[in-house]
Amino acid sequence: EVQLVESGGGLVQAGGSLNLSCAASGLFFDNYAIGWFRQAPGKEREGVSLIKNSDGTTFYANSVKGRFTVSSDSAERTVYLQIHSLKPEDTDVYYCAAGFPTIPLLQKKYGYWGQGTQVAVTS
Q1: For the stretch 8-20, what's the b/e string if a residue is b when 16 or more beta carbons lie within 10 angstroms of its beta carbon?
Q2: Is 37 within 8 Å of 16 (Cβ atoms)?
């Protein structure tokens, strides 16, 4: 059974930092790209970042570039998303997903999804 479990969300003040984790099991971790997505109530889910575990290449949405950093620990089968300089508009449920995207953050190419972790940023 494939499982992706996000953790590390919480309530933080604007300007602060969070470190999110995505722990994977039941899949050949090194074969996959792991994407991060986020969604606020009443809004569409949007792509945030991805990392290809095969070669370590990364991609960031323009909205988070320079503030978010994605990394991967193959031994732990865990992908991390470091978030700095948090803004109130970063308040979302953050999801990780595993797949083989043909273009970055194309959601239909991610076959496995976690349940999400809540990030809330106060001003």
Answers
A1: bbeebeeeeebeb
A2: no
Q: Which of 49, 5, 1 is nearest to 24 (CA)?
A: 5
**Alpha helix stretches (DSSP H) within 8-116:** none
Any bridge partners for residue 24, and if so which? 4
Structure confidence at residue 106 (pLDDT): 95
> CA of 58: how far to CAs of 24, 54, 63, 76, 106, in Å?
18, 11, 15, 19, 14
Say how far apart CA 15 and CA 20 lie, in whole Å. 16
H or E stretch covering 71: strand 68-73
pLDDT in tens, 69-113: 999 999 999 999 999 999 999 999 999 999 999 999 999 999 999
